[in-house]
Design brief:
It is a single chain. The chain is an alpha/beta fold. It folds into 2 domains: 4-126, Response regulator (Rossmann fold, 3-Layer(aba) Sandwich); 130-225, Arc Repressor Mutant, subunit A, CATH 1.10.10.10. 43% of the residues lie in helices and 21% in strands. It has helices at 12-24, 35-44, 61-71, 87-95, 108-128, 159-170, 178-186, 194-207, and strands at residues 4-8, 28-32, 49-52, 78-82, 100-103, 133-136, 139-142, 147-150, 153-155, 176-177, 215-218, 222-225.
Length: 230
C-alpha cells in the first residue's frame, strides 16, 4: 500500500508540482486548497505525512496545527512549507506541533527527502517501541505512550522535541553536536540546517519551564543535558 500524503496548499501550481514529485517517487497524494477542506480531510482520514502551508483561505495553517495537535490529538508528522521566514513564525509553528519547517522557494526534491525521513523515523519508532520510561527528577517520559510529564502535569511535545528530550535525558553530560543530533533524530541523509535544531531546542526549553535550564549550550559544539544531581 502506498503512503498517503496530504498536501495543504492554496497555490494549485505549487500543489501540483509537489504532487508530481511525490507521485513519481511512489507516494499517493491528496490535495486541499483551503483550511476548512484540509481539516475535514484530516478529521475523517488518516495520512502518513501532512505538508502544510500557513497562509490559507478560510482557516490558516496555525489554526490547523492547533486543532490537529490539541483537539484531534493527531500525531502524524507535519512539515510546514511556507513563504513566512521570520523566526517568530518558525518558532510558533514548531511550538504548535510542526515537526519541520521549509521556507519557500524550495526544491520539491528536498521536500520529498524530508517526507521520506519522517516516514523512516516513524517506522523506527514502531519497530523499536517498547514499554519503557525515562525520568529525571520532575520529568517523566513514557516511550511507549509517547507522553511527557513535568511535575506530574502532561505537556505536548512535537515528535522531534520528544525524541530530542529522550535522547538527552538518557545520556546526561554527553555533548552532542548539532549535526549529531540531526543524525540521531532524523537520520544521516536528512537535509536540515543546524539552525533548525537551535529552534527546536529553544521551543523545548520553553515547554520544560524551569527544567529547561538543564539543557545546556556547549558553545561552538552543540548541546548536553545536566541531570538533577547537577
Amino acid at each position: 500500500m502506498k503512503n498517503k500524503i496530504l498536501i495543504i496548499e492554496d497555490d494549485k501550481s505549487i500543489s501540483k508540482l509537489l504532487s508530481f514529485q511525490l507521485n513519481s517517487e511512489g507516494f499517493e497524494t491528496v490535495a486541499a486548497y483551503d483550511g476548512q477542506t484540509a481539516l475535514d480531510l484530516i478529521s475523517n482520514n488518516s495520512y502518513e505525512c501532512i505538508i502544510l502551508d500557513l497562509m490559507l483561505p478560510l482557516i490558516n495553517g496555525f489554526e490547523i496545527l492547533k486543532i490537529t495537535r490539541y483537539k484531534l490529538e493527531i500525531k502524524t508528522p507535519i512539515i510546514i512549507a511556507s513563504a513566512k521566514d521570520d523566526d517568530s513564525d518558525i518558532i510558533s509553528a514548531l511550538e504548535l506541533g510542526a515537526d519541520d519547517y521549509l521556507t519557500k522557494p524550495f526544491s520539491p526534491k528536498v521536500l520529498s527527502a524530508k517526507v521520506k525521513a519522517s516516514l523512516r523515523l516513524l517506522e523506527r519508532k514502531i519497530e523499536n517501541e517498547e514499554l519503557k520510561t525515562i525520568q529525571d527528577k520532575g520529568i517523566l517520559i513514557d516511550i511507549s505512550k509517547r507522553t511527557c510529564l513535568i511535575d506530574d502535569t502532561p505537556i505536548i511535545l512535537t515528535a522531534t522535541e520528544f525524541n530530542l528530550l529522550a535522547l538527552l535525558i538518557e545520556n546526561p553530560e554527553k555533548v552532542y553536536s548539532r549535526e549529531k543530533l540531526i543524525t540521531k533524530i532524523k537520520g544521516s541523509d536528512y537535509p536540515v540546517t543546524e539552525r533548525a535544531i537551535d529552534v527546536q531546542i529553544v521551543a523545548l526549553r520553553k515547554k520544560l519551564k524551569h527544567y529547561g535550564t538543564r539543557i545546556k549550550t556547549v558553545w561552538g559544539v552543540g548541546y548536553k543535558y545536566l541531570g538533577d544531581s547537577n
